[in-house]
Specification:
Structural class: mainly alpha
Helix content: 40-55%
Number of domains: 1
Radius of gyration: 16 Å
Strand order of the largest sheet: 1-2
């Protein structure tokens, strides 16, 4: 087992234990404020462009279109009453800790594309980024998140591919904590 994988397993396992009660509260709040399931499962593109089911706490109404949020004309109109808060604080991402334990994701890597984001998938494949395990956070997320254009995002993903190391991952995790506490780069 590599150092990166061991770190992922330990951190995700500890986080799931420590966050069990807050996650239960979030699950209750999602259920109490909107109709539908607590978790939203979407097919995402993983390592080597293999699809895997990725969970999030549901932040959108059940009738929202299945597209990347930035493609919606008025994303806010599709949010649940607590959806905006969950997205701005990234609390909606916590169920992905399970994907990290399963080995489908890592703490750090390119964010997994939706199955239908053909342009992003093709650009990442062209630059060999598809060979990486997708991450809960990544270099692109700490450098702009929703504010990045597709070419900028892919360039940052490729930079991560070339620079990846345990110390770089730790730097990205530290930067993520700072960004998340300030809700930086989240447009919806």
């Amino acid at each position: 087992m590599s150092l990166k994988r061991a770190f992922d397993v330990v951190v995700a396992g500890v986080a799931l234990v420590l966050l069990a009660i807050p996650m239960a509260v979030i699950a209750f709040a999602v259920r109490a404020t909107s109709r539908g399931p607590v978790l939203y499962w979407s097919d995402r593109v993983g390592r080597d462009n293999r699809l895997f089911p990725m969970p999030k706490f549901r932040t959108m109404r059940t009738d929202a279109p299945v597209v990347a949020t930035h493609l919606l004309a008025d994303a806010a109109s599709h949010l649940t009453p607590i959806g905006g808060f969950l997205r701005k604080t990234s609390l909606d991402e916590l169920p992905q800790l399970w994907c990290i334990l399963k080995g489908e994701m890592s703490l750090v890597g390119p964010r997994p594309a939706l199955f239908n984001q053909d342009d992003l998938i093709a650009a990442r494949t062209e630059r060999n980024v598809h060979r990486l395990l997708p991450g809960l956070t990544g270099w692109a997320q700490v450098n702009g998140r929703d504010e990045l254009t597709l070419p900028e995002k892919v360039a940052l993903d490729e930079e991560y591919l070339k620079r990846q190391s345990f110390s770089f991952d730790l730097r990205i995790l530290f930067m993520t904590a700072i960004k998340v506490t300030g809700a930086a780069g989240v447009s919806h």
